[in-house]
Design a protein that fits this description.
- The longest helix is centred in the N-terminal third of the chain and has 25 residues.
- Helix 5 packs antiparallel against helix 6.
- Helix content is 32%, strand content 22%.
- The N terminus is likely disordered.
- The chain is α+β, with helices and mostly antiparallel strands and 607 residues long.
- The protein has 16 helices and 24 strands.
- The radius of gyration is 27 Å and the shape is globular.
- Strands 1, 2, 3, 4, 21, 22, 23 and 24 form an eight-stranded mixed beta sheet that branches. Strands 14-15-16-17-18-5-19-20 form an eight-stranded mixed beta sheet, with helices on both faces.
- It catalyses: an N-terminal L-alpha-aminoacyl-[protein] + L-arginyl-tRNA(Arg) = an N-terminal L-arginyl-L-aminoacyl-[protein] + tRNA(Arg) + H(+).
- Keywords: Acyltransferase, Transferase, Ubl conjugation pathway.
């Protein structure tokens, strides 16, 4: 009887205490999926060149998931994966930002101001023939005291339009997708040169030479990598981009044409009521009659009383919401050109609703938990009660981890991808008052070899996770080495004398990078959808014994049966020699993937 009581006491001491986390937050129970190979959503190679390690958690504490993402793991629904950085085709580096040190770029400031102008009613949104909003917005300049500010607004707007056209060409295959192309910059044409290439009825106002820069970039790429891609001349590139900008320009009372590699914008003298050639800015149209007596709506997020639109941000626990799903489907069909049959409720739930994270509710007596608690959430953005965007995030002990964003294509002119990132950064800063451990904003994976992912580095000063030592290395130190090689042990350069001396040079030479963030504004974490849509399959045949040998598995916590856990050293006797060798090799592989500390906290399910 005494022995039985002793045995039950030992089992009790090893049950429920594996992944307890801070303050008794439950336990993590995981099944190891091993190595997985899939097609890649970034380089589009077509072959199963994307290689990762996978886990299926039955449950997962926020503390253990925080430790996992600090070792390069991410989740897609309830599935956890970690890229095999040395072997995968597109190495994915975890990227984060310490929000208290965040310095917004000029473009990020413009995004905030544009949203404010929209809420104030001073951002003029053009209408389509059927009266619905389209993705064209022009800044309504102030007539009195006008001049430079209005001109800058116009040039910035059309620079963004051309950049969007470049991204369209990349998606359609007209431009290659595996290099980072330069960004457009519209310039004002001085009066002395305005008669060049202009008809008598037109006047040249603005011009852009982006076609020459793109052509030069393509030539260098072809030379460096010995590709067989056809060479596009500046003239051809300018004609392609001008054709994309024609409709937008005409909506603003301008004409656009390619001219010897330049993209030129002309005003019509017969439309001088819209364009003032002497100032080269859009003049403010006559005020429209106010057909509504509706009083200005007060913004629920500290808005001014003069605002015309009510703006709200709501944070809710992850759960299925049909309105959210409808917006997600519209986004996927319009922005990503998905097939309607593929955007189902079940696929949406698996990807963005299901979560293995154990929710930790707020506790008035516990300052270590934010008011919303810890877990998986959907952050809703509403204008006048209409849902325009949803950010899927995980709130963990040290960070807000951004997983995915989908938004209403009718509101693309608001750059909701950038705007939501700025709001999430702001949320972290505000939450530190209640939960001091919350200091970071995680943007998912940074993939230097994929130009569409480089925009994440524009949230400065960011850090990348070294894939070998799991130390955080400033992006400014990492970038020059990633320019040369896809896979880099970043901590080697961070701790070397060479790396330290590079920092000042990098800061001087690459400050313009914060202005070169992606303008396609598709999403914050596009890596998540690429992983989710891939066709995963087990592939252990390539895994050599040398990759799994060496890890100490004695203290790995093993799930024996429900709520009963034992250390592996106490279970060795339960296997014969051949079984023990196989099981040990599997557990060693698991330890190498999650690390010794986590393997002794999380419960490894033999199932």
């Amino acid at each position: 009887m005494a022995e039985a009581k002793k045995k039950r006491g030992e089992e009790a001491s090893t049950s429920g205490g594996g992944g307890g986390g801070i303050g008794g937050r439950g336990e993590s129970v995981v099944t190891d999926c091993g190595r997985q190979k899939s097609t890649c959503g970034y380089c589009k190679s077509g072959a199963r060149t994307s290689i990762s390690h996978g886990l299926w958690p039955q449950s997962l504490t926020v503390d253990d998931y925080q430790a996992l993402i600090d070792r390069g793991w991410r989740r897609s629904g309830c599935y956890l994966y970690k890229p095999d950085m040395e072997k995968t085709c597109c190495p994915s580096y975890t990227i984060r930002l310490k929000t208290s040190e965040f310095v917004p770029s000029k473009e990020q400031v413009r995004v905030s101001k544009r949203m404010q102008r929209f809420l104030d009613g001073t951002l003029d949104v053009k209408k389509t023939n059927n009266g619905e909003s389209c993705n064209i917005a022009t800044e309504s300049p102030v007539v009195d005291g006008g001049g430079k500010d209005e001109t800058d607004q116009f040039m910035h707007f059309f620079s963004e339009q051309i950049n969007n056209s470049v991204q369209v060409c990349v998606k359609s295959g007209e431009f290659p997708s595996d290099i980072q192309l330069p960004k457009a910059s519209i310039k004002r044409v001085v009066p002395a040169k305005r008669n060049l290439q202009a008809d008598n009825s037109e006047e040249l106002i603005f011009s852009c030479n982006i076609a020459f820069q793109i052509s030069a970039t393509l030539r260098r790429f072809k030379k460096d990598f010995h590709t067989e891609s056809s060479e596009l001349s500046p003239t051809t590139i300018a004609e392609i981009l001008a054709s994309h900008s024609k409709q937008t320009a005409e909506a603003c009372g301008l004409s656009v044409r390619a001219c010897y590699g330049h993209i030129n914008f002309y005003s019509f003298t017969k439309q001088s009521d819209l364009i003032d050639p002497r100032r080269s800015v859009i003049s403010k149209p006559a005020p429209t009659t106010n057909i509504s007596n509706e009083r200005p709506l007060k913004r629920s997020c500290g808005a001014r009383e003069s605002q015309r639109h009510k703006f709200e941000i709501r944070l809710k626990q992850s759960s299925f919401d049909y309105e959210e799903y409808s917006l997600y489907k519209k986004y996927q069909l319009t922005v990503h050109n998905d097939v309607p049959d593929d955007v189902t409720e079940s696929s949406y739930k698996r990807f963005l609703v299901d979560t293995p994270l154990t929710y930790i509710p707020p506790n008035d007596n516990n300052a270590a938990v934010p008011p919303c608690g810890f877990g998986s959430f959907h952050q809703q953005y509403l204008v006048d009660g209409k849902l325009i965007a949803v950010g899927v995030v995980d709130i963990l002990p040290k960070c807000l981890s951004s997983k995915y964003l989908f938004w209403d294509p009718d509101f693309a002119f608001l750059s909701l991808g950038k705007f939501s990132a700025l709001q999430e950064i702001k949320w972290v800063n505000e939450s530190q008052l209640r939960c001091p451990s919350l200091q970071y904003y995680y943007l998912g994976y940074y993939i230097h070899s994929c130009s569409k992912m480089r925009y994440k580095a524009a949230y400065r000063p960011s850090e990348l996770l070294c894939p070998f030592r799991y130390q955080w290395v400033p992006y400014d130190i990492s970038k020059p080495f990633l320019d040369r090689k896809k896979y880099v042990i970043l901590s080697d350069y961070a701790t070397s004398q060479k790396g330290e001396s590079l920092l000042l040079n990098v800061l001087d030479n690459h400050m313009e990078d914060q202005e070169n963030e992606a303008t396609n504004d598709v999403l914050v974490n596009e890596d998540e959808i690429a992983e989710f849509d891939s066709d995963f399959s087990d592939d252990e045949s390539d895994e050599s014994d040398s990759e799994t040998n060496g890890a100490d598995v004695s203290n790995v916590l093993i799930g024996v049966r429900a709520n009963v856990h034992r250390r592996f050293k106490d279970l060795r006797h339960a296997f014969d020699q051949s079984q023990r060798k196989f099981v040990e090799s599997q557990i060693q592989r698991y330890v190498r993937a999650v690390g010794t500390e986590l393997s002794e906290k999380m419960v490894y399910s033999l199932a």
